[in-house]
Write a structure and sequence with these properties.
By secondary structure, the chain is mainly alpha-helical. The protein has helices at about 20-35, 35-50, 55-75, 85-90, 95-130, 150-165, 170-195, 205-210, 220-230, 235-240, 250-285, 295-305, 305-330, 335-340, 360-375, 380-405, 420-435, 440-465; strands at about 140, 145.
Length: about 475
Amino acid sequence: MTQTSVTNPAENHGLARRIGLPAAVAFNMMDMIGVGPFLTLPLVLAAAGFRYSVWAWVLGAAIAVCDGLVTAELGAAFPRAGGSYAFLSNIYGPQGAGRWVSFLYVWQLSFSAPLSIASGCIGLATFLGFLLPGLNGAMLSALPGVHWTNLVAAGVCLAVVALLYRNLTSITRLAGILFAGVLVTIAGVLTSGVVTGMRIPGAWSWAGVAAWPTAGMLPALATATMITCYDYWGYYNICFLGAEVKRPEKTIPRAILLSIAAVATIYVAMNVASVPVFGAQAAQVAQGAAPVRLALVAEIAQSAGGKLAGQALAALILWSAFASIFSLLLGYSRVPYAAAKDGNYFKFLAAVHHKHGFPHRSLLALGMVASLFCFFPLKEVITLLVVIRIVLQFLLQQVGVMWLRYKQPELVRPFRIPLYPLPPLLAITGFVFVLAYRPNPLRELGVAGLVGLVGSVVYLVRARGRGEWPFRKTGIAGVAAGD
């Protein structure tokens, strides 16, 4: 039998392995695509400028590939429910410092996962507002920032929770149907961009599509790349379902790398196809002379094929957004559950549904918190999500994979990072660039620091009462510490 987990090769937290490679790729790509690129394309344009936006997509893809290789090695070595929770626990010691680091990861996920889910719900409601303009109005004159779309977004979130309240076999079948709609949506965006661009002389010349960024463009490029990083994230979704994947030592790395390659190709192609259509309007938006219209890709389709085409594409994007929310909630619900099963998070969340065998309390908790975050502005949601996740997940994993190579060279690694240690070092460099070069980065970094500080205090209070690290003698460096 192939060893797949250094802590317990047979452990799967009571969940059945039913997910094959096609479903794994579909779950990842639904999570990655969703509404993100359709909604954030104008935000990237506004941040980086008309002819520099393509570099934000390319740089975001490069960071995703480097981090994806890190995730693939860890996911193949530790195919357990919870993904990064299992990685961090085993890297830093399941009975030692890893207990604190993995708790901290789940703690931040209690905020960042609902933010991610809420961003998809807000995006869906935004495109519904394109079809039903009345939704864009304020609900109350005293709260001009809260629109009917926020209420719709919260309702969508709760509806997806209800849809996921069933067994994994039926969910996998439904995922295939949803994924087919995502592919049709992408085809519609690319087609409308090409059709409209063909009417513009020189639309796809180098000057019409891109320009080499200068040193003065680095802050703008960092801001835009932060948004594209958000759009690429989700390639690790299958790791959250690691205990439910067939042949995880092969399926998980393949699903990660295939989904990144496919989505990166789609995003760059979509940018090249769509950006020339913006023309002078794009330059005005980038300079702050015009508002950013979040449903811009639907307007491109309307320009290409008339009002009906714009409405049809907006409807397809609704489908894609729904599929993304579906995949996000499915994957993230396994993380607090896995931690609670290990006794390293709130015990209430460790329950499995008596009939359908899924972590129903964890699903309900994330869904309710996400529905509250649906009343936040979209740009704030995305920025907080990205900063918190980089600081309290990705950097810990990239440093951790190198630490694990040093401390446990004999660990069975079904997948090994090629060109090691370049990918984790490049991923760290990319994320630090995104964090440090943005204008005024301290506010979001302060929020991430506060989340980490409060989470650490909560952990220490629990650990003291339970006699866990650091309040008892135990090894803290090795993977097998305390075993």
